[in-house]
Amino acid sequence: MKRTSACIFLVAVIVVSSAVLCFRIGFDTDIYRNGYDRIVRKNLSEGYACLFRVPKGYHDFAGPQPLLIFLHGAGEVGTDPRTLESKDPLHFTRAAGFEIPMIVAVPICPEKRWEPRRIVAMLDQLLADNQYRFKIDPDQVYLTGYSMGGFGTFETAAEFPARFAAIVPVAGGGEPTQANKLQNIPTWVFHGEKDKTVPLPSSSLVVDAMKRNGHGNVRLTVLKDAGHGITKQVYSDPKVYDWLLSKRKK
Questions:
Q1: Which residues are bridge partners to 51 per DSSP?
Q2: What is the value of pTM for the model shown?
Q3: Whose CB has fewer CB within 10 Å in the chain, the N or C terminal residue?
Q4: Please, which residues have CB within 8 angstroms of residue 48's CB and are 6 or more apart in sequence?
Q5: What is the pLDDT of residues 11-52, one digit of tens each?
């Protein structure tokens, strides 16, 4: 009798496990079949509504993946993250014909200022929530942003310096007084030489302050003859992602 019960239990476990496995594979096939599929999730705790992209072939059997958070500019303020489909870094990498091995989170801001607390609240929920079974490596969380998002990148990293492995502010700016808070974060800043919307000193002054404080891993790339709209030039460059992926939190 005991042997019969054990056999029945074993068969039940196998059936249930097979059903779960089939569901997971079916779920992955449905969600990720095209690679970089869009997954929109709203009401992320105290964070922002968000557009997600996943690497081609990603599934929940993979190990922890790097996460790139992209903060948009003032022109994209709104409430529907689907409007950001042609604004995020993956739009430019796909147009340039290459892919990056990162999960990309693209939150949308309903007002003209990013709140660092809400960005980190969103990150905390992503790290803890398994609704879509994202596996994120907490030592490879990167932050980048354009214009208003560039300011938000500097501000968020200064307020929560332990949360990010590296940052890439683009056509934004920071305060020189933030320099000491950014000392341990690898930083690559991009700005257009002829930017009239956000003048170059918005970036160069904070970078100079970081260097004076002894920051050994900060660089400023000034794009010659470029104005404010430099997202394509920056996010189409594979070297940006190679640099990010080479950084891990200490």
A1: 40, 106
A2: 0.84
A3: N
A4: 107, 108, 109, 110, 118, 119, 122
A5: 454 444 444 444 343 333 334 444 445 566 655 667 788 888
